[in-house]
Amino acid sequence: MASGKLGLEEIAAVCRSLITSGLETAVCLIGNATAALAARPDQWKTLRTAPHLATKAVNEILRFDPPRRFVLRIASEQAEVAGHSLPPHSRVLVMLAAAHRDPHRFPDPARFDLARSSQPGHLTADGAMGLEISLARLAGEIAPWTLAGRLPHLRPVGRAVRRPGGAVSGFTHLSLRASATA
Fold first, then answer.
1. Which of 1, 150, 158, 174 registers the highest number of CB atoms within 10 A of its CB?
2. What pairs with residue 86 in β-bridges?
């Protein structure tokens, strides 16, 4: 990379990394959405009867239970955050999941609600992580309404187990009971 440009091998490596991390984010987004919807039969029914709400479902899950709970940012210039002065190059850990539960921004923030305002209003990752979220969104809009159409009656059974720590939040175990009829 002496010329300052990426070679084909570097580009391929970046693409592989993006696809791998995007897939992980998508899997967690779909799992988080399925868990939230299955635990709320009224919301599951709403999505089942109105598949066009899939985009709203993704926006709400990105607010309610995002696969990326935090992002690290570096201040490019002097900034003030909550009354604290940050010099240039300060590292800031932005807790997305906490920001999405701010009752001043989101009425009844602990409620998962497909009827919430159509404006996302939540924070999402940008840069390379933004590409991950974009890939996850595509899968995330298709999977829930496809599941809702094919398995209209879905409910959690047993105890769900979250992945331990890490940058991406999802489940290692999520037991569901599904049926095509009530």
1. 174
2. 79
Quick one: tokens of 182? 């009530």
Helix segments in 101-153, DSSP class H: 127-150
Report the distance separating Cα 112 and Cα 106, nearest Å.
11
Domains of the chain, each with CATH number or no CATH = 8-178 (1.10.630.10)
User: Which residues, 6+ apart, have CB-to-CB distance to 100 below 8 Å?
Assistant: 62, 63, 64, 66, 106, 109, 122, 123
DSSP string, 40-91: -HHHHHHHHH-GGGHHHHHHHHHHHS-SB-EEEEE-SS-EEETTEEE-TT-E
d(Cα 29, Cα 8) in Å, to the nearest integer? 31
pTM of the model: 0.79
CB 87 within 8 A of CB 78: yes
